[in-house]
Structures are given as C-alpha cells and as structure tokens.
Specification:
Blueprint (H helix, E strand, L loop, with lengths): L2 H4 L5 E5 L2 E3 L30 E8 L8 E11 L4 E10 L2 H33 L5 H6 L6 H26 L1
Parallel strand pairs: 3-5
Antiparallel strand pairs: 1-2, 1-3, 4-5
Helix pairs in contact: 2-4
Length: 171
C-alpha cells in the first residue's frame, strides 16, 4: 500500500535533525496527504518546518499478554524507508493491580448475572401480563383466587431462581 491509501490510519511522528519525537502535526499542515509530510523542504520558510518531516509510525512492539502494559518507548528512524520504528517495553502489572482488576471483573460479572436473572424473572412475569416479577409477587396476598394463585406461583419461582443463584455463588 502506498501512503495515500493508508493516510487515515497512520500515526505520524515528527523527524527533525535526525531525531524523532512525538509532536502533533501543525494545524497549517493538517489535511495534507501523508506523502506530502515526508519532506517539507517545499514549505514557506516563515512556517519554520522546512527542516522537519512527519513520518509514519511502524510499531514493532511485542504484543501485550494479559496483565501487561506498555512502558517506555524507543523511536528509531529508518531513513531508507522514511518511517519511525517504535518499540515499547512490556511491563508486567503489579500483584496489587492484578488483584484490583480481578475484583472489579468479578463484580462486573456478578452484576451481569444478577441483572440477567432479574430480566429473566421480569420477562416471565410479563408473559402473565404483570409489569414485573415484583408486581406479580404482590398478588400472592390478593383476595381474588386466580391472582393469588398466580402471585404465589411467581413467589415460588422467584425464590427457586434466587436460591439457585445463591447456591451457585456459594460454590
């Protein structure tokens, strides 16, 4: 692929005096094709970028595994290919960071399960024309026998469902 085809996906890094630095492209250069940024000697000297270029980043960092993050990076100029090769140090998470993540993830999964169980119960109650399981259960004390039976059935099903969840959680 040439630079004009990949322009929208590129991260560009400033190159000046054989040094690469992460610096945003000046607004007066925004919108130019990436190939135009490889050599800015054509620009007006008053803009102060004739000795600069913005070259595409080529990330050669190792892929992250679980419980890792990127640390310091090294920017290496490849003048022949007009790219900046980026390599980042892989840093393992601390035991405390792992424990915090696992606790948060366990809490998130538990919330998803509880919300899913409640949606299931409410959906069941709606099949009996009640707004929710809570609403259906209030009919267990109704003076109308049909509503009382339905309400009591919903109380039993609700209790069975949540008892199963509690048993699974305890395992």
């Amino acid at each position: 692929q040439n630079l004009s085809q990949t322009n929208k996906r590129l991260t560009m890094i400033k190159v000046q005096n054989n040094t690469a630095v992460r610096e945003p492209i000046p607004t007066f250069l925004s919108g130019l094709n990436a190939a135009s940024l490889l050599d800015l000697s054509w620009t007006d000297p008053a803009l102060g970028v004739q000795d600069c270029a913005w070259w595409p980043e080529e990330d050669q960092s190792s892929a992250l595994q679980q419980f890792e993050r990127y640390g310091d990076e090294t920017l290496t100029i490849d003048a022949e290919r007009q790219v900046v090769v980026v390599t980042r140090v892989v840093v393992p998470w601390s035991a405390e960071e792992i424990a915090e993540y696992q606790a948060a993830e366990a809490a998130r999964i538990r919330r998803e399960i509880m919300d899913g169980v409640q949606r299931y119960l409410d959906g069941f109650a709606r099949t009996k024309t009640y707004d929710s399981m809570l609403s259906a259960c209030t009919y267990a004390t109704s003076t109308v026998p049909k509503f009382q039976r339905e309400g009591q059935y919903c109380v039993e099903k609700r209790d069975e469902c949540w008892a199963t969840v509690a048993r699974i959680e305890a395992e």
